[in-house]
Amino acid sequence: MRRGWIIGSFVLLVIAITAPPASAAQFATPAFQTQWVAGEAITPNFWGPLATAPDPRQEYYKDAPAGQRLVQYFDKGRMEWTDPPGLATNGLLPVEMIRGRVQFGDDIFVSKPPPEIAIAGDPSNAGPTYATLGGRASGILAPAPVQTGAPVTTVMSATGDLSQGPPAPGTTLSGYDAATRHNVASVFLDYRNRVGLATIGLAISEPFRAGFVVNGQPKEVVVQVFERRVLTYTAANTPAFQVEMGNAGRHYYQWRYPPGAPPLQPPQ
Questions:
Q1: pTM of the model
Q2: To 10 degrees, the CA torsion angle through 44, 11, 250, 23?
C-alpha cells in the first residue's frame, strides 16, 4: 500500500549513514526542510523538533533508484526521498505498526510483531497500543457503514476490549473515507482539511474513546488512526491543543530500530 504526493523538486544531498543515529543536526535535503517549515507554520509541533530527531539515514527500498532511499524521522512521522528523484513523501507508519509488517518495497514486507507502545499519551501508558489495535481491538479496523451525524460512542479499554458508552463531547461522525470504508470524526475531518490529506492520510480505523495519561494526568481522549498519523482530540484542552498528533514517527523508529538489536533485513 503506497501513495505518493509531490512536495517539491530539489537536488538530493547524498548522505551515507553507517553509525547508529543520535540526533539530527540538519535536514537531509532542502525538500525536507521546506516540508517541515510549512507544517510548523500551520501548527506548532506538526513534525516535532529537529533537535530531537534521529540523524537521516538510507533505508533499503527495492523500488527506489539503486534500491535505497533517504529518510528522516521526526516525532510525528517520516519523510522519504523517493522515486523519481525529487519527490518527498510521508511514510505509512501506523499501517505498518498495526499490521506488523515493515515495508521494503512497493510489494515487499517483512513481518515484525506490532509494538507494545501506547498510541497516545505518556510513554508510561498501559495502552491501548499498536499491538492492541492489531489484535484484540482489531474490530475497530473493520470496514464500517456510513454513519454521518452519529455520535462517537465506541470505548476501548487499555487491553483492547470494545464497548459502547455515552457520546463523546464535542464531536460527531461527519465524513466518510470511501476508499478505506471508515467514518471520520468531525474534529479530525476539519483538522485534516486544514493541514492536508498528504500528511494525515485516509482513516484506517473508526474513532474511539480511551483513557490515557498525558503529562502525568489521566484524560479521556478521542482517537482515530489514519494512514500516516494518529490524531487525538481532548475536549478539556484549550482550543489550540484539542486536536493533536500522536508520536507515530518516534514510536515507529523505536519499533524498527530497538537499541542493541541488529537491523531488520529485507528478504533475500
A1: 0.89
A2: -90
Calpha distance 40→146 (Å, rounded): 33
Radius of gyration of the chain (CA): 18
Distance CA 3, CA 38 (A): 20
What are 224-257's pLDDT values in tens digits?
999 999 999 999 999 989 999 999 999 999 999 9
More confident site: 71 or 127: 71
What's phi and psi for 173, nearest 5 deg? Answer: -85, 120
What is the tens place of the pLDDT at every residue in 155-209?
999 999 999 999 999 999 999 999 999 999 999 999 999 999 999 999 999 999 9
Q: Which residue has the cell 487525538?
A: 232
Confidence (pLDDT) at 83: 58
Q: Cell 489550540 appears where?
A: 240
Q: How far apart are CA 236 and CA 239, in angstroms?
A: 9
Q: Which amino acid is at 55?
A: D
pLDDT given for residue 2 in this prediction: 39
| Cα–Cα dist 68/81, whole Å | 9
Distance CA 40, CA 37 (A): 5
